[in-house]
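ok, trying the design again with the full structure, not the truncated one.
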């Protein structure tokens, strides 16, 4: 699987100790069967495929944030 851009950025962020616990949501046009699982396996906390609604995006971001 080769998803350029966001995946490499996420790996760079996750490699930095002081910011490695920030939740990450993949917002992408990759919306074929299996793509969600691929992004989660790459380290994203949540996934939103395009097109999406505002409510779906907000709900997904809220799901990615730590409880508290």
């Amino acid at each position: 699987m080769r998803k350029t851009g966001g995946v490499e950025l996420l790996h760079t962020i996750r490699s930095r100790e002081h910011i490695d616990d920030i939740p990450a949501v993949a917002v992408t046009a990759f919306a074929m069967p299996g793509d969600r699982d691929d992004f989660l396996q790459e380290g994203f906390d949540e996934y939103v495929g395009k097109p999406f609604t505002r409510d779906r995006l907000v709900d997904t971001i809220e799901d990615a944030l730590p409880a508290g």
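Keeping the full-length input from now on. The first strand starts at residue 25 and ends at 28.
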